[in-house]
Amino acid sequence: QETGNPEVRFMQLDLASLRSVRAFASAFLSQEPHLHLLINNAGVSAGGTTEDGFSLSFQVNHLGHFLLTQLLMERLQSCAPSRVVIVASRAHCAGRLRPDTLGHPPPGPLSAFQDYCDSKLANVLHARELATRLQGTQVTCYAVNPGFVNTELFRHTPLWLKPFFMPLVWLFFCEAAEGAQTSLFCATQEDLERFSGRYFDDCRLQEPWPQARDDRLARALWEASERLVGLVGAGESPFP
Predict the structure, then answer these.
(1) Rounded to the nearest 5°, which phi and psi values hold at 85?
(2) Where are the domains of the chain?
(3) Is 116 a catalytic residue?
(4) Catalytic residue, candidates 24, 66, 116, 222
C-alpha cells in the first residue's frame, strides 16, 4: 500500500531460524517462476543465541543468507543473467574468522560487537567465493558497504549506552534511502559483470581489507558454512 505498486509481495522470513529459511525458499520457489535479483540486506547487532545454536548476529547476517542464497541458486541460474548483492559493512576490517569456531559467540566483553564484525567479514568473503564458484553461469555477485545508516540495526544497544550512542546516530548517520544507493547501484548498473565478487563502497569499486581478500579463508568459510547449515550431504547445494 505504501509503494502503490500492486506487484510488491510480502513473504515472512526469519533469518534467525534455518527452518524458516527453508520454509521461505520452498514457498517462494513454488509460487514464483522468476528470480533475477537477490539482495541479502538484513542485519542485526546483538548478543544471544538462535534456536539453531548459533550466535544471533552471525546467523542472521551470514549463515541465514548463505543458506537462502544456496536454496535459491538454481532459480537464479535458470533466470540468468541475474545478480546477488550482499550487504556488508566497513566493520569487516575488524573481523576475525576461525572456521573451527564459526557460529559461536566470540569471547570477551565486546562479544556482540566482535560477532557483528566477524559476520561482516563473512559477507565480503561469501561474495568473493560465490563469484569464483559461479564463473560461466551468468550469475554475478557483489559485496557492498552501505555506510553508517540510521536504521533499527542498533535497537539492541544496551540501555546504559544509548544516551551516548544515539545522538551520534542522529547526527552522523545517513538515512535508509541514502544507505541503499550502493546496493541499488550493484543491482542495476550495466556492465558490472567483470567485477563479480568485488566490494563496492559509495557506488565505487573499492579494495576491502586484506583479510577480506584471502581466497583460502573464503574457501574455508564456505565449506564450514555448508556444514553448519546442513547442506553437505543433503543434496541441496548446487556446487561440488
Answers:
(1) -115, 125
(2) 36-229
(3) yes
(4) 116
